[in-house]
Amino acid sequence: MIIFGTRTRMSLVERGQFHCPRCGPGQRYERKHAKRWFTLYFIPIFPVGDLGQFVECGLCRGTFKVEVLSLRLPPAADMNLEAELKRAMLRALLGQVAAHADAAQTLATYRKLTSLPLTDQELARERTALAQVDAPAYFANFSKHLSPSQRERVLQSAIEGAQVSGTLSSHKLEELSRFGALLGLTDASVRGLILHAATPAASA
After folding, report:
1. DSSP-derived pairing of the beta strands 4-20 and 24-40
2. Under a CB-based contact definition with an 8 Å cutoff, are residues 97 and 118 in contact?
3. Which of 124, 146, 185, 204 could share a disulfide with 150, CB 3.0–4.6 Å?
């Protein structure tokens, strides 16, 4: 019996870094070319169709059209960087806010941090997006694009999120310290921000 069929095979076109629509800037990608091959006894013999190229994110494994590479974040794109910074601040905030926390307080805290309004729908959408990414990898990669003061803004957002959920416990302070280190902040910067946040709680 002759066994034949088709199989899709991918070839690597290039590797690089790009701005992933799901994970943010600074992600590794592979650009691949897919073709359909005729197989005989499961062995590819010759191509029978060109399926085109696509881009795969190395972090979330999402696949996108090659046009996504035009979203690559150039060093001078201050407006794009600031927009992504606000997104990272929101993710840092949400990463510390307990599920039972008051949504209105979360929205008010984000507005205090960024001076930007946020709707309930946008908040829910970002919660869903955050659950679908590798958060430590996202923050570690994105922080490479930030200045020390911008990294401090992200850590401050996490601190504010933890305070939305209640008093800062010693365990929570240790978690925030690890987050600051993940962002690439110095020990002195992390201690200063956390000490400032913990002092009112300690004296209450």
Report:
1. antiparallel
2. no
3. 146
